[in-house]
Amino acid sequence: VLLRSPRYGSPVDAFAVGCVFAELLTLRPLxxxxxxxxxxxxxxxxxxxxxxxxxxxxxxxxxxxxxxxPDVVDEGTVEAREVRRREDAKARRRxxxxxxxxxxxxxxxxxxxxxxxxxxxxxxxxxxxxxDLLRWDPKARPSPGKALKYPYFAKDGTTAANLTTAANLTxxxxxxxxxxxxxxxxxxxxxxxxxxxxASHGSGKK
Length: 206
Prior knowledge:
The protein has 206 residues and is mainly α. Helices cover 57% and strands 3% of the residues. The longest helix is centred in the C-terminal third of the chain and has 33 residues, at 173-205.
């Protein structure tokens, strides 16, 4: 979406689910971007940049936009310290300007593994699911059905079969009766509302 891809489907939703899942585990956004371009930099920091190997279409979309992905430097290096210094200076300018800043992609970002970004809040099963949901290439992300087969969904006695069956259950007689009762209740409420409206109009004429 950030690279203006014309394709939108369930893989985009899979990525969104991954972001929400990460936030549920850590209680904070995984990619807290302040703008689209800042968001891209934060994605690259954790996922690395899209290229001809991990997502050829993404590399072409970026080139079409004239977008250059930031360089990725390792933590603890001289380059990483320089990146941090620039980020701190940018944050000070932003505070001074009341939160406003020029929107641009960072020249470089510090590499942060998904494990480090999640801290101690995610176990290996959760990390495995996250890694696949957050792949750059939409075709490499699992479909909802495949995602339900991951070990994460099989713990605590819950199986993918249970989840899939529950999702596809047809309405039972009980549920049909409940639906009919709700429809009848709605009709009665509509009648009562109409009566109140007529009564109020009548009292106004008097």
